[in-house]
User: Fold this.
Amino acid sequence: MRLLSGQRAWLLQRITAVYVGAYVILALGFFVLAAPADHAAWLGVVGHPVIGLLTALFVLLLLLHSWIGLRDVVMDYVYPPATRLTVLVFAAGGLLLMGFWALFILIRAGLA
Assistant:
């Protein structure tokens, strides 16, 4: 049984898109209306626990959204099974690395 196939993947893709879209709009609005003046102010905003948690959730959902879309495209258009597996492994590895990198940045900002 596939956990992320068919209607589940479609619904999860839409749910993650709503959160990612809302986060981007709110973040852009915040930075247009009340942009931090310097690096210390930026760290103060990003280092706040609520903002850090919302940003970590954003990164997680963005990576999940990316994975579902990328996986669907690869499953539809890459036919040789070995090539498909290779592309999916590299894509998953790249997304995991980006996720850990973002988490590292958020943790450093929270500790600063």
User: Anything to note?
Assistant: Residues 77 and 84 are 9 Å apart (CA to CA). Residues 7-111 form a domain with the 3 helical TM bundles of succinate and fumarate reductases fold (CATH 1.20.1300.10).
